[in-house]
Amino acid sequence: MATVLVAYGSSEGQTETVAERIVEVLETEGLDATLVDLKRRSGAFEPATVDSIVVGASIHAGSHQQYVADFVRDHRSTLNRCPSAFFSLSLSAASEDAEAQATADDLLEEFLEETGWNPDGTLAVAGALKYSEYGFFKRFVMRWIGGRASGDTDTSRDYEYTDWDEVESFARQFATLIRTDA
Ligand SMILES: Cc1cc2nc3c(=O)[nH]c(=O)nc-3n(C[C@H](O)[C@H](O)[C@H](O)COP(=O)(O)O)c2cc1C
């Protein structure tokens, strides 16, 4: 059975939820998928031992988690050699404004350029506004940012914008690529 590492960085949990869904789809497609939280990982796993790799991160203040970029840089040759894919969560990708969506794509490309990685597949996907998980200051800032991006400013609830069909289709396409490559 082909093995897939699904490694992610997540600050408020939405990228983790997306990574979990990707693992579920890959397993349904008959692959042996392992989920790794890059923030909490011990040094005990070695990407070079798996057949393929999916990496996910989210955008905060215009960039992806530094520890995810470090992971990609550290394992760039492995990532560029095996089937690989990258997904990026943001509020920009949730916007109906074409310029904001283009920003999500640009930041994704910037991440790849800075890390020197050429994945086979990419996805800029809408994230979430989790007011319930933000402290006072972050909630205040996000109410302003969220108001501009989506108009959702009711801080007594959370908002999820992720298009799950898009996520599942991304995972299925990657499973097809792995099978073709095997
Ligand atoms: C403090 C903060 C800053 C953010 N900055 C950006 C940003 O610059 N651009 C953007 O598109 N989304 C931004 N977002 C939205 C996040 O990318 C979105 O909430 C995403 O779902 C977070 O994923 P995570 O829960 O896996 O960390 C920001 C969110 C927070 C809380």
Question: What's this entry about, in short?
Answer:
The chain has 182 residues and is α/β, with parallel strands linked by helices. It is built from six helices and eight strands, in the order βαβββααβαββαβα.
**Helix content bin:** 40-55%
Q: How many discrete structural domains?
A: 2
DSSP helix count?
A: 6
List bound small molecules. flavin mononucleotide
pLDDT < 50 runs, ≥5 residues = none
Q: Name the shape in a single word.
A: globular
Give the end-to-end Cα distance, rounded to a whole number of Å. 10 Å
Mean pLDDT: 94
Overall strand count: 8
Structure write-up:
With 182 residues, this protein is of the alpha/beta class. The protein folds into two domains: 3-127 and 162-181, Flavodoxin domain (Rossmann fold); 129-161, no CATH class. Helices cover 44% and strands 22% of the residues. The strands form two sheets. Strands 1, 2, 3, 4, 5 and 6 form a six-stranded mixed beta sheet that branches. α4 (98-115) links the parallel β5 and β6. α1 packs across α6 (164-181). It is globular, with a radius of gyration of 16 Å. It starts with a strand and ends with a helix. The structure holds flavin mononucleotide. Flavin mononucleotide binds next to α1, β3, β5, β7 and α5.
